[in-house]
Design brief:
The longest helix has 26 residues, at about 30-55. About 65% of the residues lie in helices and about 0% in strands. It has helices at about 5-25, 30-55. The relative contact order is 0.05. Pathway: Energy metabolism; oxidative phosphorylation.
Length: about 80
């Protein structure tokens, strides 16, 4: 291995080891996402399902019906 590459590799390895040691000694405090992440995700999924369930079942929307071929023009009246 070339001396420059070996020096770069040892620098990277030393940096990773330093970061791992620093993080291991720090007390982990839960963030907002740790505390409420799953609850917010489930709440959003519930609201999404409820709103689209209402749209698909209660609103009188005719999906995919085209008037092409079913409407004929009436005669011109002068």
């Amino acid at each position: 291995m070339f001396p420059v590459a070996r020096a770069a590799q040892s620098l990277v390895a030393r940096g990773i080891q330093h970061t791992a040691v620093r993080q291991a000694h720090r007390k982990h405090q839960p963030t907002f996402h740790d505390k409420y992440g799953a609850m917010v995700l489930l709440g959003g999924a519930t609201m999404f399902t409820a709103v689209w369930g209402y749209v698909f079942t209660q609103l009188k929307i005719e999906w995919g019906f085209s008037p092409v071929g079913r409407i004929t023009p009436s005669e011109w009246k002068e």
